[in-house]
């Protein structure tokens, strides 16, 4: 692997947590459990959204899309990480690294945009409850979701091409557990200031525009909810919005920390821990946050289980 430029590499080495063998053993068990919970929780949300007619609403259409997105996002990195944690071989092929970067970037960007779309959905539900189903027509929901995927993967395609055009001069050891933009740029044997600036600019747009939309939506929602005279009505409104706000806070908090700070402001170990948080813990937590705070989902779970029990 001593070729002179990145395009001729046969592969990379993902260093991950190889400098801490004891930690690798613990991480394997913990991440395996978290990954199984992620599969269970998100698959349950998708299944319930399709099986229960009461959940055939725009809110649960977006939620099932978020669950599918989280399944794909976690699966793009975690299975390979589990394999690397159990073995001495930490390699990934050049094509595998390109593919992993493309999908992890695309899926992460899609989630950024989709969470903003979900805030608009909550805004319409609170401000126009009588016209909600007319405003959030299935075609509009499908269009906004498709646009989220299209914009995100267009950005991912451009960034992936730009990253792998940077000459690496034979360097192939990535100080991370998956192919990520910052550690890949650190392999470059040329000045990457221009690349860093371009990527930072795109990250600001992808992250801060949805954050601005979410902030505006919820600043209006809180004012409107406080006008509701019924305590039960207020609780219901805050319940459906509270779960989304929790997910938003977790996701954007870690994403902004990871991508909108100078690279020299935190260590590589911190970067890895933050990456673990948004690649496995948040996708695992999302369905449980929505389930625990949402009576409709809990009711759907009881119906499905009771139906299955009665059929016996």
Quote the beta fraction: under 5%
Main sheet overview: 3 strands, mixed
Helicity range of the residues?
over 70%
Q: Categorize the overall geometry.
A: globular
Query: Which class do the helix and strand fractions yield?
Result: mainly alpha
Provide a count of the helices.
Answer: 11
Give the distance, in angstroms, between the N- and C-terminal Cα atoms: 60 Å
Kindly report the oligomeric state of this protein: single chain
Please sum up the structure shown:
It contains eleven helices and three strands.
Question: Which properties best describe this structure?
Answer:
312 residues; mainly alpha; three-stranded mixed beta sheet; 11 helices; 3 strands; 74% helix; globular; disordered N terminus
Any overview of this molecule?
The chain has 312 residues and is mostly helical. Helix content is 74%, strand content 3%. It has 11 helices and 3 strands; from the N terminus they run βαααβαααβααααα. It has helices at residues 21-51, 58-75, 78-86, 94-127, 132-135, 138-164, 181-185, 193-226, 231-259, 268-292, 295-310; strands at 11-14, 91-93, 173-174. Helix 1 runs antiparallel to helix 3, helix 1 (21-51) runs parallel beside helix 10 (268-292) and helix 4 packs antiparallel against helix 9 (231-259). It is globular.
Helices and strands, with pairings:
Layout: E1 11-14, H1 21-51, H2 58-75, H3 78-86, E2 91-93, H4 94-127, H5 132-135, H6 138-164, E3 173-174, H7 181-185, H8 193-226, H9 231-259, H10 268-292, H11 295-310
Parallel strand pairs: 1-3
Antiparallel strand pairs: 1-2
Helix pairs in contact: 1-2, 1-3, 1-10, 2-4, 2-10, 4-6, 4-8, 4-9, 6-8, 8-9, 9-10
């Amino acid at each position: 692997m001593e070729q002179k430029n990145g395009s001729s590499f046969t592969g990379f080495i993902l260093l991950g947590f190889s400098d801490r063998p004891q930690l690798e053993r613990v991480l394997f068990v913990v991440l395996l459990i978290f990954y199984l919970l992620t599969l269970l929780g998100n698959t349950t949300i998708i299944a319930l959204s399709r099986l229960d007619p009461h959940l055939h609403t725009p809110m649960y259409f977006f939620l099932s899309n978020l669950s599918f997105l989280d399944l794909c996002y976690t699966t793009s990195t975690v299975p390979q990480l589990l394999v690397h944690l159990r073995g001495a071989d930490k390699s990934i092929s050049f094509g595998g690294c390109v593919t992993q970067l493309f999908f992890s970037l695309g899926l992460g960007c899609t989630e950024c945009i989709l969470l903003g779309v979900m805030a608009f959905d909550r805004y319409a539900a609170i401000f126009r409850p009588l016209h909600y189903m007319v405003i959030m027509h299935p075609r509009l929901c499908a269009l906004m979701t498709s646009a989220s995927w299209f914009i995100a993967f267009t950005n991912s395609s451009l960034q992936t091409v730009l990253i792998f055009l940077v000459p690496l001069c034979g360097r192939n050891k990535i100080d991370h557990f998956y192919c990520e933009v910052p550690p890949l740029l650190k392999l470059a044997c040329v000045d990457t200031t221009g690349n860093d600036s371009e990527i930072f600019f795109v990250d600001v747009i992808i992250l801060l525009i949805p954050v601005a939309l979410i902030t505006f939506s919820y600043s209006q929602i809180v004012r409107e909810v406080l006008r509701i005279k019924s305590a039960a009505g207020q609780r219901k409104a805050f319940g459906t919005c509270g779960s989304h706000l929790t997910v938003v806070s977790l996701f954007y908090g870690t994403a902004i920390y990871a991508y909108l700070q100078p690279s020299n402001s935190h260590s590589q170990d911190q970067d890895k821990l933050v990456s673990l948080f948004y690649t496995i813990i948040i996708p695992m937590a999302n369905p449980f946050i929505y389930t625990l705070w949402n009576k409709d989902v809990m009711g759907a779970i009881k119906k499905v289980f009771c139906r299955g029990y009665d059929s016996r």
